[in-house]
From TrEMBL:
Protein name (database record): Acetylornithine aminotransferase
Molecular function terms from GO: identical protein binding; pyridoxal phosphate binding; transaminase activity
Tagged with keyword Transferase: yes
Phylogenetic placement of the source organism: Eukaryota, Fungi, Dikarya, Basidiomycota, Agaricomycotina
Record keywords, A-Z: Aminotransferase, Pyridoxal phosphate, Transferase
Cofactors required: pyridoxal 5'-phosphate
Gene3D superfamilies linked to this entry: Aspartate Aminotransferase, domain 1, Type I PLP-dependent aspartate aminotransferase-like (Major domain)
InterPro entries: Aminotrans_3, Aminotrans_3_PPA_site, Class-III_PLP-dep_AT, PyrdxlP-dep_Trfase, PyrdxlP-dep_Trfase_major, PyrdxlP-dep_Trfase_small
Source organism (scientific name): Guyanagaster necrorhizus
SUPFAM superfamilies assigned: PLP-dependent transferases (SSF53383)
Similarity field: Belongs to the class-III pyridoxal-phosphate-dependent aminotransferase family.
Length: 450
């Protein structure tokens, strides 16, 4: 049991149920590298990275030291008062990492949601247009603008409407919610969805009223799906044709998570606005909106900012993150560990005993989703999804497997949409620890479906 049981129950009593928790019977005591220890004596292998944040492992010595040193010089140098050194050093470090050289104007904020708000604002001001097109299944955050472009689950906005108006949704190229067979090729899915987007632009929001299209290059909370390059390239063409801004949300997929610095790189697509957070500062609150100076100079002085925007300690930590990522060891490890994980999960998906419960293994780099089948219910039957769902499949497999993994010492999450177990291990995880985590997943799946 928790060594701080009284403190734990105080926390439970005085926080809202609106804040969910995976571990509710212990308190985190210590976190180091790929492991997290709790006050009940448990030490767990962490395949969550605090939802894709501590990508270089918990308390990375180089990053923690830079933050501690920064604490002794400038903690808060308000960015609307003056630059502090880490703010500018961070820009210097990030410029060569950008997926396109045109991305030359940086604004730092605290969270991903705030950065999304800033991106929407820049798009509206830069184009003088109002409407935003978002993707079905997208997740962009819980503030009002971010919530308006979030479509993975109703729980985020239920009961709080009306939220930001002027948002339109277009289908996302993943076979499952489209009711298409799993064998549909990425090119076919993209063609279908680009056609649907054309319909949105002719029947719902005219190009001349459309400020931006926002997309995650790897769908995060919505199910860990790698967006086909054909679709991203098609979005770019449409945006170029009509002067619409393309906002690329790499809050979860950015900073080497995909096996490249940014997931958009594979497509060769140039973002007009790139949104980053999470892995950027390895646990210190920091996000970034990166665009073109020519666009961001349309903002009037004072229209951007925030008390804690671009905090000095967070920026100092992020400078080290960038240096480590450019050091040459991280990307090769992401690719090698990714292959290791895909090999193991694909073997599980073709296993004669458990394979029939698995619908899909997908994602990219170390952002991997293991999707289970779900029983056929009225929603599936109505939407034509019966081919992928079946009545002899138990409900809630992803959550059941997650719980079993946690019992066995592997901290892991599901995504908010579909039956997806999601793997977000540290990018510098060892081969041995990856093997250990994958074995726990395989054993847990076997135990749950037996
Ligand atoms: N965009 C994406 C793609 C995300 O995954 C998230 C967080 N899960 C956000 C935006 C919101 O970031 P935050 O929770 O820091 O506000």
């Amino acid at each position: 049991p928790s060594a701080n049981a009284a403190l734990l129950s105080l926390g439970q009593k005085h926080t809202t149920h609106g804040l969910g928790r995976v571990i509710d019977d212990a308190i985190i005591e210590n976190a180091s590298g790929s492991y997290m220890s709790f006050d009940d004596g448990r030490t767990m292998l962490d395949f969550t990275c605090g939802i894709g944040v501590t990508s270089l492992g918990h308390c990375h010595p180089q990053i923690s030291k830079a933050a501690a040193d920064q604490c002794m010089s400038v903690v808060h140098g308000q960015c609307s008062i003056a630059f502090h050194t880490p703010y500018v050093r961070l820009i210097e470090e990030l410029i060569p990492m950008m997926p396109h050289p045109s991305l030359d104007s940086f604004f730092f904020w605290n969270s991903g949601s705030e950065a999304i708000e800033a991106a929407l604002k820049i798009a509206r001001i830069a184009t003088g247009r109002q409407n935003i097109i978002c993707m079905q299944s997208a997740y962009h955050g819980r503030t009002f603008g971010a919530m308006a472009v979030t479509r993975s689950k109703t729980v985020y906005s239920a009961g709080v409407h009306p939220i930001m108006p002027g948002v339109f949704q277009t289908p996302y190229p993943y076979f499952h919610p489209l009711g298409l067979p799993k064998e549909t090729s990425p090119a076919e899915l993209s063609e279908y969805c680009l056609k649907q987007l054309g319909i949105v632009l002719t029947s719902q929001t005219a190009p001349a009223d459309t400020a931006a299209i926002i997309v995650e290059p790897i769908l995060g909370e919505g199910g860990y799906v790698s967006t086909p390059v054909e679709f991203l390239q098609g979005l770019r063409r449409i945006c170029d044709t009509y002067g619409i801004m393309l906002i690329i949300d790499e809050v979860q997929s950015g900073f080497s998570r995909s096996g490249d610095y940014f997931a958009i790189e594979q497509s060769g697509v140039k973002p007009d606005i790139l949104v980053v957070a999470k892995g950027l500062a390895n646990g210190f609150p920091l996000s970034g909106v990166i665009s073109r100076k020519e666009l961001t100079d349309k903002l009037v002085p004072g229209s951007m900012g925030g008390t804690y925007a671009g905090n000095a300690i967070s920026c100092a930590a992020a400078v080290q993150v960038a240096k480590i990522m450019k050091g040459g060891d991280i990307l090769p490890n992401v690719r090698a560990r990714s292959k290791q994980a895909f090999d193991a999960l694909n073997a599980l998906a073709t296993d004669p005993q458990v394979g029939k419960y698995i619908l899909d293994v997908r994602g990219r780099g170390l952002m991997i989703g293991l999707e289970f089948k779900s029983p056929a219910g009225p929603a599936e039957i109505k939407s034509g999804l019966v081919s992928q769902a079946s009545s002899d499949i138990p409900a809630g497999l992803a959550a059941k497997v997650m719980k079993r993994c946690v019992k066995k010492g592997l901290l892991i999450l599901t995504t908010s949409a579909f039956e997806v177990l999601r793997l977000i291990p540290p990018l510098n995880i060892t081969e041995e620890d990856m093997k250990k985590g994958l074995e726990i997943i395989a054993d847990s799946v076997r135990e749950v479906v037996k």
